[in-house]
Amino acid sequence: MSDKKIVASFVDVGVSYGGGVDALSHVSLDVYEGDFLGVIGPNGAGKTTLLNVLLGLTQPSSGKVSLFEAPITPKGLRRVGYVPQKTATAEANSPFTVYETVLMGRAPRAGPLHRLGHEDHDKAEETLRLLGIHDLMKRKIGELSGGQSQRVLIAKALAGEPDLLVLDEPTSGVDSPSRIEIYRILSELNRDRGITMILSTHDIGVVKRLTNRAAFLHGTLQFQGPTSELNDQVLSKMYDYPIEVTEDCQVCDYPLEHLTHHDHT
Ligand SMILES: Nc1ncnc2c1ncn2[C@@H]1O[C@H](COP(=O)(O)OP(=O)(O)OP(=O)(O)O)[C@@H](O)[C@H]1O
Ligand SMILES: [Mg+2]
């Protein structure tokens, strides 16, 4: 752990929106290279706000945020793939095809003056295959189902070969088999390619099974640590609601056993 690079760091971060909404206060959190961090917390807890701060989309009112051990810059952000929360996406009326959309995911990595070439097209195709949406490549984004378009957004984020992938509830509205498949892919990318993942979700079962670190937000960071410490007792206290992950978790009935629960520490 000690010589691992810090991919993202929040030091005493606060975010106040107008109208006196304190979305986040005193959040301090380090994400290490290779981590799969699950961020959980109730609606309005500040999960999206935390991710947006890291992506440079929301300015913190206090504290300090770093990305790849440097201030947040466009150069650093080119190494980050982002799958926004569904409600926030403007893709619904997009005139572009699936292929064009995923290809656009190459642009941040390539840089502003780069013309997309063979390598970019190859990578876009490879990513479409990886997400199982190759047969949709000529379709318009606006004509896809919710679950299909979520896969496209994930493919677009992955096409840029990010070092860090930030996913904000990426599988809401996605059917169960597809959800399992998406998490299988994410888990393998984390394990085999070492892509650091930050995943915001309400699916505690996914966090328990896939991630090595967890954070519970509710305005402040109420828990952070190895996911193994996130037991039912801790979860019940956090949510102020009795939680039994083995019985209540939505993915427990599905064959996720093949997903390795790994610990980088
Ligand atoms: N642009 C904004 N302006 C004002 N308040 C905002 C803004 N965005 C979020 N908020 C408020 O900040 C708080 C945190 O919102 P945020 O979207 O970060 O929560 P969340 O944990 O992602 O919730 P959910 O699980 O519903 O996605 C909420 O009280 C929300 O109403
Ligand atoms: Mg959110």
Q: Helical content, roughly?
A: 25-40%
Low-confidence stretches: 247-265
Bound molecules: adenosine-5'-triphosphate, magnesium ion
Top CATH class of the domain at 1-79 and 202-259: Alpha Beta
Order of helices and strands: EEEHEHEHHHHEHEHEEHH
Q: CATH architecture of the domain at 1-79 and 202-259, please?
A: 3-Layer(aba) Sandwich
Shape: globular
CATH topology of the domain at 1-79 and 202-259: Rossmann fold
Number of strands: 9
Q: Estimate the strand proportion.
A: 15-25%
Overall pLDDT score = 87
CATH superfamily of the domain at 1-79 and 202-259: P-loop containing nucleotide triphosphate hydrolases
Helix-strand makeup class: alpha/beta
User: Helical element count?
Assistant: 10
What is the gyration radius calculated from CA atoms? 18 Å
Strands in their spatial order, largest beta sheet:
5-6-7-3-8-9
Major sheet details: 6 strands, mixed
Question: Could you give the topology of this structure?
Answer:
Layout: E1 6-17, E2 21-32, E3 36-40, H1 47-54, E4 62-67, H2 74-77, E5 80-83, H3 98-104, H4 107-110, H5 118-130, H6 146-159, E6 164-168, H7 176-193, E7 196-200, H8 204-210, E8 213-218, E9 220-226, H9 232-239, H10 245-248
Parallel strand pairs: 3-7, 3-8, 5-6, 6-7
Antiparallel strand pairs: 1-2, 1-4, 8-9
Magnesium ion binds next to helix 1.
